[in-house]
Amino acid sequence: MGPIGQHQKMAHGYFAFPKLEGEIAPHMKFRGKEHLVWSLNNYLGLANHPEVRKADAQAAEEYGMAYPMGARMMSGNSNHHEALEKELAEFVGKEDAFLLNYGYQGIMSAIDALVDRNDVIVYDAESHACIIDGLRLHMGKRFVYQHNDIDSFKKQMERATKLVEQSGGGILVITEGVFGMSGAQGKLKEIVDLKKQFNFRLLIDDAHGFGTMGPTGAGTHEAQNCIEGIDVYFGTFAKSMAGIGGFVASSEEIVNYLRYNMRSQTFAKALPMPMVVGLRKRLEILKAEPQLREKLWTIAKALQNGLKERGFDIGVTNTVVTPVFLKGELSEATGITMDLRENYGIFCSIVVYPVIPKGLIELRLIPTAVHTLEDVQRTLDAFSEVGERLKNGYYREQKAVNA
Questions:
Q1: Helix residue ranges per DSSP H, 37-78
Q2: What is the pTM of this model?
Q3: d(CA 191, CA 233)
Q4: Which CATH fold topology does 50-288 show?
Q5: Which pLDDT tens digit goes with each residue over 303-318?
Q6: Residues 6 or more apart whose Cβ sits within 8 Å of residue 67
Q7: Which value, to the nearest 10 degrees, does the dihedral of the CA atoms of residues 325, 331, 336, 341 take?
Q8: Model confidence at 177, in pLDDT bands (50, 70, 90)?
Q9: Residue ranges per domain, the chain?
């Protein structure tokens, strides 16, 4: 069953595969009770934005869910698909972009297409699972550097450089703009600066940075002022855009190569028209209403500052992703989660081994532009009480917490 699946009988429906009901919002129902939810990928609150709902509904009425029928290359292309690609490329500062049906599947396929057996990949140790699965498709060598450690990066680049001098291949460096578990930004600027010393192309996964980072929300590369140094930019629609799918943006030459060589797109049906039309409206709002991003940051900073003031460890986050790290075992993790949900009506994601080291518990909070400062205060008060219970050994002694 694997390290997570072995607990499925106890976890299913509560800790894993829970069902949140009602309209997508900070307050939803879980098992019939209203909960304050910090687990939704809806950073800018676009999921139920009235203009987005209207655009989605009108496109569904006009085109139905099936249109266009077929893969983009064969019969599934449209003016809306191409217009969205042009708008995305312009927004993130690249010449061209290519839509992806799913973010996870898309970046795997992009990695597969960008390298061959003569090439070497150098990647961050804490890269997301989609990147790791993409690496598994690679037939050549790959080297991992310690998370956000530039000295370690240099050592792996030296190894990679020696190899490609013999093979005649190239080096693809992969990192993230924002690491989704810790909230840390990738060292994009430092890596880009090392192009003076090493010859490589840089691919970044900016799933959590697109829409949240930078003066205009264009991404972490904008926030770090190194747009030109990013060779291939990946963004997803599943976070800030409250949708499905993703995109890669790069030079016209690289994007055209990907259009004709990404197997996951060549042999898969195009994104349905209602999603594409709705995404265009989402992007329009993202650009036209910076107050949504400002509200998101107001909530995130209030939450993070409040947690730190109460002595909680939120790690090194310098983005809106808000982790809370606690010392405890799996049984204590389940007790904390049940206590928060059953007695405080607070729903947040729980992360345990093997995602993080044994002996640690992470409660992961995702703030949004539609949360309120009252939501923040309620959460801080609950966490203070739960934190004290953990320190006093309460969850080691309790087998259930009013569940």
A1: 50-63
A2: 0.94
A3: 14
A4: Aspartate Aminotransferase; domain 2 (3.40.640)
A5: 999 999 999 999 999 9
A6: 272, 273
A7: 130
A8: very high
A9: 2-37+290-397, 50-288
